[in-house]
Each structure stands twice: as C-alpha cells, then as structure tokens.
Fold:
Amino acid sequence: MKNRDDILSDLQEILRGKYTAKSEFGESSRIYQDLNLRGMDAWEFLSMIFKKYDVEYNEFHFSDYFKGEYFSFADILNSIFNRKDTSKKELTLGHLSDVCFQGRWFEPKK
Structure:
C-alpha cells in the first residue's frame, strides 16, 4: 500500500499528464478553483482515482465541489475580473490524497 506522499505524487503526475497545463501545484491546490477542472474532466479524473485506490465514495456529492461543462455569464465575468468562484466547496489535492489513503470519502475539515 502506498503512503500519503506517494499518493499525492501520483495525483500530481496524473493531473500534469492529462488535465492541466499548470506546472506548479501541490497539496493545497484546489482541484476546481485553482486547477480549473470541471464537468466531465473532473468526473473522469475522480472516477479514475477512486477506482485506482479502491475508495468508497457513496457520500461524495460531485455537485457540491464542481460545476458542469458549460460556463455561465457569472463565470465569464469572474474570469475577466480575475475573481475566484466561491460557490463550490473546496477539494484540495491534499484532502484527496487523505481520502485515497483511508479508502473512503469524508468531508474536508473547515
């Protein structure tokens, strides 16, 4: 079984390879807000990770953390004025690493 740091490195490699062009991100990086993963890309990434690490995720509610594929007018304005979307809960790479290590979904600490 991999340790938490190995899992975090694995997540970073998967993201770099397919889902983000950003080169600098780490444990505190938020998957939706910082890495801009949304919609099907976010679901594909999480599904692959949950399967790879055999995570029980029945309590995970995707729509609490991610938006769909399409951009709203508010998304466009936020982008123009460089404002972050605060309408969704934050899911960091560090928390996802903890979830994978424990093998079950649990809410991030506030």
Notes: The CA atoms of residues 60 and 96 lie 11 Å apart. Helices lie at 4-19, 39-52, 62-65, 73-80, 93-102. The mean pLDDT is 86.
